[in-house]
Amino acid sequence: MEALRVSHKSLSPSSVQAKYPLLKALLVQVLSFVVCFAFAVIAKKFYGYVFIPFTFLLLLLFHSFLSLLISLLLKSEWWWNVIAFIFPIFVSLGLYLQISSALSLVIFLFLFFVFGTTLTTRVPYFPSHSSLSERLLEFFSDKEKLQLLDAGSGLGGLIIDLSKARPDWKLTGVEISSFPWLFSFLRSKILRRQNVKFQLGSYEYLNFEKFDVVFAYLSPVVMSEIWKKVQYEMVPGSIFMSYEFPVDGEPPSFEIQVSEKGAILYVWQM
């Protein structure tokens, strides 16, 4: 584990930028707002009062597209580009509708408990394809008493689906976001899945050594980090799987076509 800690200390400027995407998103909005404000002031001085409804809408769209452009130039992940575009629109809409502070707080807390950890983990919520569990069941059809970890289990759909068909497997899901974890935990209790365990927290604090299979559906920006953990902790003969996202510079042992649309499950035999 010491080797992993050392690797995280020596961060390049580009990796620091990737590590704190919220600062980048804030910078995007500040820059675009300054440009739009300057544009409005200049327009008012030379062309008169600009904040009539039509021109305000044009200014708002200009703000959104400018935010998107700056976010693209800073090479943000795609979901931050989407946020950069819609953020000015949603703020303006909220002010126009005069949403109560109580309702605003409820909306904020809901979004925070679902997506808040994305700010630090850089891993947004990705629902996996419905046929993924079928492919895993086919691949491990001859395995008994398999111990599988879903690193970033979300709402727990994959683990629950697997538990139906293979009650002899021990299935663990770990999820850092509170609401998805609570949903999956309650779901497993209601369905009385005895072979399922959902943990609240980060996969970084779990020891991969005790698992026969570690499955991940995370994000391209964290694949190199989880690969270091996989190499350090997983035992020979175990299997690491990543859905859709490969590890740069580490060719998989083989690939599994999951859906007709081209989704790939990358498999590494340790």
Walk me through what this model shows.
- It is a single chain.
- A 7-stranded mixed beta sheet has the order 3-2-1-4-5-7-6, with helices on one face.
- With 270 residues, it is of the alpha/beta class.
- 27% of the residues are buried.
- Helices cover 53% and strands 13% of the residues.
- It is elongated and about 75 Å long.
- It contains 11 helices and 7 strands.
- The chain folds into 2 domains: 97 residues, no CATH class; 138 residues, Vaccinia Virus protein VP39 (Rossmann fold).
- α3 packs antiparallel against α4 and α4 packs antiparallel against α5.
- β2, α10 and β3 form a beta-alpha-beta unit.
- Keywords: Membrane, Methyltransferase, S-adenosyl-L-methionine, Transferase, Transmembrane, Transmembrane helix.
- GO terms for molecular function: methyltransferase activity.
- This is Class I SAM-dependent methyltransferase.
Are there runs of 5+ residues with pLDDT below 50, and where?
Answer: 1-19
Give the number of DSSP strands: 7
Radius of gyration: 23 Å
CATH fold type of the largest domain: Rossmann fold
Domain unit count: 2
Helix content: 40-55%
Shape verdict: elongated
InterPro entries: FAM173A/B (IPR026170), SAM-dependent_MTases_sf (IPR029063)
Keywords: Membrane, Methyltransferase, S-adenosyl-L-methionine, Transferase, Transmembrane, Transmembrane helix
Transmembrane segments: 21-43, 49-71, 78-99, 105-125
Protein name: Class I SAM-dependent methyltransferase
